[in-house]
Task: structure prediction
Amino acid sequence: MTTTAEQANGWEPRIVAFFCNWCTYTAADLAGVSRLRHAPNARIIRVMCSGRLDPQFVLDAFARGADGVLVGGCHPGDCHYMEGNYKALRRVRLLERMLDGMGIHRDRFRLEWISASEGEKVKTTINDMVARVRALGPLALPAKFADWDREMDELEHAVAAQTEDVHA
Amino acid sequence: MSYLYFPGCSLRSTGRAYEESILAVFRKLQIPLTELEDWNCCGATAYVSIDENRAFTLAARNLAIAERMQGNGGGDLMAPCSACYLVLEKTQHYMETDEGVKREVTTALHRGGLDYRGTTKVRHPLDILVNDIGIEKIARAVVHPMKGMNVACYYGCQVVRPFQTFDHAAYPTTMDRLVTALGGRSVDWPMKARCCGGSLTGTIQEAGLRLNRALLKEATARGANIILTCCPLCQHNLECYQKRINRRFGESLHMPIAYFTQFLGLALGIPPRELGIQRLFVPLPETDGKRKEVPAHA
Amino acid sequence: MKLPAPPAVRTETTNSPPPMKTVTRRIKFESELDLSFGEHVAERAYGQKLLSCIQCGTCSATCPLSHYMDYTPRKIIAMTREGFKEEVLNSLTIWLCASCYSCTVQCPRQIHITDVMYALKREAIARGFYPAKHPIPVLARAFFNRVMHDGRNTESRLLITLYLRTNPFKMLKEAFLGFHLFRSGRLSLGREHIKGIKELRAMINGPEPRKEAVPL
Amino acid sequence: MPERNGHDAPRIGFYVCHCGHNIAGTVDVAAVAKFAATLPNVVVARDYKYMCSDPGQELITTDIREEKLNRIVVASCSPLLHEHTFRVATQKGGLNPFFFQMVNIRENVSWVNDDGKAATAKACDLVRAAVRRVAVHRALETKHVRIHPDVLIVGAGISGIHAALTLANAGKKVTLVEREPTIGGHMAMFDKTFPTLDCAACILTPKMSAVKNHPNITLWSYSEVTEVSGYVGNYTVKVKRKPRYVSEELCVGCMECIDACVYKEGKTPDEFNQGLSKRKPVYIPFPQATPQVVLIDPETCIEFKSGRCKKTCVEKCDRNAIDFKQKEEIREINVGAIILSTGFKTFDAKRIPYYGYGKFPNVYSSIEVERLVNASGPTSGELILRDGRRPKTVGIIHCVGSRDKNTNRWCSRTCCMYSLKLAHLLKEHSHAEVYNFYIDIRAAGKAYEEFYDKLLEENIHFIRGRVAEVTDWCARPEEKGKLIIRVEDTMIGVVRRVPVDMVVLAVGMEPNADAQDVRRMFNISCSTEGFFLERHPKLAPVDTFTDGIYIAGACQGPKDIPDSVAQAGAAAAQALSLIDAGEVELEPNTAYVVEEDCSGCKSCLAICPYSAISRDEAKQKAVINEALCKGCGTCVATCPSGAIRQNLFEDEQIFSEIRGLLEADEPILTGGEA
Result:
């Protein structure tokens, strides 16, 4: 693994994790009860079902500076609400294509089925995700937005200046 | 279906008959084998006593070459010697599960201009013959059913442990099924996966001899008239030390020890000389139909 | 530290216990132990699993050689865990292990006992805890030299080296067998070389000489 | 005091819990409180030893009054554990309980991190998110639903029987469903029970007939639950009643038909006797089976196979109970609570081939030996082996399929004690030398150690060592014809070969083969091992994550009879407390439609698994039936115009949470990979 400038500055991946209440959040609790140490980079947001996952949550997380987004739901067939996880899966597949189009690497977004008994899987999934995102380096969308805004401003100024010239 | 072939050092010396019979059988079954290019010693047992990562590197060099050759149309890597098979599998296993091993070995490979991504599958000929080619196909090709052969199938230790997945580690049955399909009778005995002592016959000989004695005696007691092996070291130990065991313990053991590929070759009608039968010290028993060639210096 | 004599196998040990001649005082003081030894070995045997041993004895009972050992494999694990470093590294057990992996596949804690034995052999060699003419370390070293020279090993040469280094008289005992093997074409005195030996040496020796085992 | 509605500007009280050393040992709680104090709207920020304790909760209620707080955030353990506790505290202080947000800094932070700095940083991020979120919380009303007073119990082993009797005696109507033709479960197969050695039948059969005769219990044996729907207090359950081909109402259990069957001898392995004897196509599992009704096995009955049987059974039955045309029936019932007591299965010893089970006839599983020594068993209690011999030496191997990572890693808890019991019984029956091969003797129960002591005094051999192999390979002439047990006597430090005539494998307890299907049907979880998962290992051992569904007995984990009975009583009590409350509070996390935003596109209609959404054709708008909505939120995420919202999980609230997590000015400094 190469050491990037960001890592030298103490950059750490920031992962936002959306976990469903019944399986994956419970599994994360189990990981805690079993004292399974894992990377401290993931921040969990609890939703009742992975079906509640609005693609906008993912986009918003990236836009606000997340380097990766992890979604955890019950295994197929195990959804507490019968089929919410299937709905999540469909949305995630579409969203992945969208993220591809935006140039966001596939390793930055991940859907995992983790049942209430799979504390170990919570640990390995988070560690693996953090390692992958770490290898990719920071996404830093907010900074890019700022750059793009500045470029836009400059462009507008340039255009404005030109127009002035023409009319002058 | 084709395979890369890793002979290993033994098959070029004490295990020559094993190599001869493997090549003959695969030729007969029309399964192409390509010898691994410029293979090196697998890094077996004794070497690991010095330094594990260097031993892994030795094995990994072969895995890496195999991976490169697979890219050019080679198949899984076949390792007939149990020790080679185990060491190659073990290297594969630890490179998959242990970050430290993976890092060190990969760095070492890079120094020699090689890279390994971890895609090589290590296979034993027993596994290939029974699970890829299939017992039915082999049974159809039998021309000399091995009637009258009461076979104690001896798997030895390393081929069924602990990383392989094709058979049970303590009670394997793959070879027994093959023997039955060839018309032989497989003798059920409890020692089929019990260690022959490996290199102990050369180092702490008394212990090694005793292990072999137990194996030979039990096979005899269960009515076997031949033991088949799938490892050059097992074959060597069981066969070459029989006289010494008889002298040392006052036994009268006289058990032919052949490679399972020799047995298979005979059933397929391959001439004994092509299978290296003449290299065995104890003559094979007769089948009901046909008398087998007896080596000159029995 | 050297063992007094090369190993000899005393037979029927269970039936003829050695007569008790002297009264021996036996006690272990905690200060004589090396409490970090267990973790040290565990690390070298790929993971911490040996610490989870429950002393059930499956390894000893499944081992085909345990009845020749001075300590059963179970005891070796217990002693390693508790830091009986000298006893462990001086034991015959580690040299009797024939690497058949019975214990490893049957261990209810999935401890890779064979790899623990390897780790202990390495430690013993690195610290000189073995008799000078003990055949196994010699075999291991001869093996290594042969492979570093040619990339492959020729068993006959290896055996000859072994016997010359340990017990030249054994040569005579084995000569008869050697003759048979040679006649049947199963013993070649020739040598095999690989083409990429330079690269191989670069891989194995590395840019800087590597320590064989890290001393404690 | 009226609840404040929280429309005023947010005044947030923040509390971080030390949880003794559990949180404070890793997370710098004082720093977290200090950090929280700097966040917008936070008026009070405190740390306290145990927030869930009375004084901890008092802190919240007092602050609400004195500091005029209108929002509460507590950073402590998992909301699955104490969210309710703190909502109640919030309410006590005079606020709507939903002006509360919990931060999990124990399970999600302190217990999974060693690095205090990284843990504290993570805790701070989570706190910031919660503070953001709680500011946009709204007051909600808790829903109440009525509870149906009947209870379903699935599985009629000792646990199910005990729970059923407990509830029935309290006047509740119970439907007890059992898959097998008789109730009684594994206990009915046992001969004696440890440590008292009283006979299993003597203590069980009175309870079995009490079940049969109780006016409040409907017993459906030979039946299986096929479908469950509904929610706490209002479950609808479909039960398949398998055909016995004998009318349960007419049959009196005289068993004349069995004698009359054209088969003179049984030909089918008897399931109840573990295949040690044969039964006929018409049979009853055992003489005291409950209900006392025979059944016909269509797989082996000649009438079913060829239609040309003389039907001597029918001739013999003077009550005309035999009915070859009986069909499977599906019954539907409504219940308020469900108790699952589906039990366990014994470990299949064939999975450990080196013990020779299935290969050597004289290797037995412990459950077979239970039948073998049972006075009503296949040999009437005489110890006759499969090869007709009587054993002179017996070896009992403990921990077969227990404490072994290659099979099952857990301790099955009962095997030590039942092995001791069997050792005693075998010695009593045969005067054989009995060896126990054990790893550890676990005799932790009332009078258990005393029982072990008794066995030691009986001169039973105890060899500490896990057996490596049972083999017929004999090394000595005297071993010929014996089974040799190879084991290290770890106390003496030597490998021993013990020749025996009979080997008993003390097989462990496993989840039922269909435990996964059952848990899916009842919408509960399983632990890693596959046993049903309790809501909390200590504080809610018989509850599940699905309200109104309770578990009892060995389906939750290996258990002996006293523990199963105790747990069955607890499950019955939990069900009783639910039913007797009459109604139950539901989490108000349902979805609702904002009419003016709804375009009537119907996207949501198909997506709801509960058909809770319909379309008001007049208004051309979606309508959500709040009673049917379970609150998954899938429709909320689906609605293209954002017209559907979810209480407790509003978009605004989740966006605030995301924003809170990520708005750190500085890059988050953490300690690297765990």
About this structure: The two ends of chain A are 57 Å apart (CA to CA). The first helix of chain A runs from residue 5 to 8. Chain A has two domains: 13-137, 140-168. Chain A touches chain D through 62 residues (CB under 8 Å).
